[in-house]
């Protein structure tokens, strides 16, 4: 019997009424493990998605610009899971632009291009309404704080039209979050964070205060697990893996945090889902954040 081990860390209600298990899944690695590498095997990617659902993962993070060599995350999700099980929440992101031949997005879409990108996600995922759409702003460097109101207002209008259930913002500063919140309710923030980063947790605390989910991207470091002696020490104490400590550490940091680790490997998926049941102590957390 399969147990829904990913649900062990409990649930969060996006926007107050859309529940998701706090351990989710990031789909960016399904088409290709590393943007510079060869595409994955289609069958392997489909098997990872099917297994994720069995493990109790009901929050999948995707984007129309996650594709490589004929494999696209949205299309894989649809093939593996459509008709979608009740309660599955698929989050997507719009904002980045990717030209043919680019291996990843290289520019930002204008406000007038966002409706098309939302419609593309609707079609690729085979739904009439998207559960959660983030406006992803800025490039790959630190969030730049530039105004986002004009673009976020377009998504807010599409939500009013019924095409989107919940809105989020990604790669933002506290001021950009506040700007978005003045336009429409924000259910989630998706910024780069992992427990080993000495990054300010102020925005995370703001999210917690405002009942906004904080969804770290690159929760496992993004480019290979961080080689970190604090993580190794806590992992040894719990007979867990470093990846599990990174994920359990995130979940312990704030009740508003939702984990979306990415993987193209069934073994890593199982390992990551099991981290939902790893309970770290106050001492562990003090050591990790030292
Ligand atoms: N908003 C944004 O700007 C933004 C940017 C980047 C990503 N994202 C989202 O965030 C999600 C998570 O980020 P990510 O996937 O880029 O990075 P990540 O979760 O930090 O790390 C994924 C990498 O770690 C490896 N990995 C996964 N589980 C592992 C384990 N148990 N042990 C060892 N290695 C493991 C994966 O390789 P294997 O395939 O070999 O497991 C992959 O190379 C993405 O999937 C995407 O949905 C958003």
From TrEMBL:
<protein>
    <submittedName>
        <fullName>Aldo/keto reductase</fullName>
    </submittedName>
</protein>
<dbReference type="InterPro" id="IPR036812">
    <property type="entry name" value="NAD(P)_OxRdtase_dom_sf"/>
</dbReference>
<dbReference type="InterPro" id="IPR023210">
    <property type="entry name" value="NADP_OxRdtase_dom"/>
</dbReference>
<dbReference type="Pfam" id="PF00248">
    <property type="entry name" value="Aldo_ket_red"/>
</dbReference>
<feature type="domain" description="NADP-dependent oxidoreductase">
    <location>
        <begin position="22"/>
        <end position="289"/>
    </location>
</feature>
<dbReference type="InterPro" id="IPR020471">
    <property type="entry name" value="AKR"/>
</dbReference>
């Amino acid at each position: 019997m399969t147990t829904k081990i990913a649900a062990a860390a409990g649930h969060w209600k996006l926007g107050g009424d859309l529940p998701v298990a706090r351990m989710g899944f990031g789909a960016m690695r399904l088409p290709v493990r590393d943007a510079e590498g060869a595409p994955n095997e289609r069958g392997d990617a489909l098997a990872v998605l099917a297994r994720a659902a069995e493990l109790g993962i009901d929050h999948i993070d995707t984007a129309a610009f996650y594709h490589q060599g004929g494999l696209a995350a949205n299309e894989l999700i649809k093939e593996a899971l459509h008709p979608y099980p009740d309660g599955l929440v698929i989050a997507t992101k719009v904002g980045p632009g990717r030209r043919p031949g680019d291996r990843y997005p290289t520019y930002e879409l204008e406000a007038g291009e966002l409706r098309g990108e939302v419609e593309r996600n609707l079609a690729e995922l085979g739904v009439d309404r998207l559960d959660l759409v983030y406006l992803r702003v800025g490039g790959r460097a630190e969030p730049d704080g530039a105004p986002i109101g004009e673009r976020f207002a377009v998504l807010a209008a599409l939500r009013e039209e019924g095409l989107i259930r919940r809105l989020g913002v990604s790669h933002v500063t506290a001021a950009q979050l506040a700007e978005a919140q003045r336009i429409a309710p924000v259910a989630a923030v998706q910024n780069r964070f992992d427990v080993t980063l000495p990054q300010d947790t102020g925005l995370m605390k703001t999210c917690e205060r405002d009942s906004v989910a904080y969804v770290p991207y690159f929760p496992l470091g993004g480019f290979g697990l961080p080689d970190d002696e604090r993580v190794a020490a806590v992992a040894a104490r719990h007979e867990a893996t470093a990846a599990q400590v990174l994920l359990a550490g995130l979940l312990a940091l704030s009740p508003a945090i939702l984990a979306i680790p990415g993987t193209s490997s069934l073994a890593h998926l199982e390992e990551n889902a099991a981290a939902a049941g790893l309970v770290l102590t106050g001492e562990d957390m003090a050591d990790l954040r030292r």
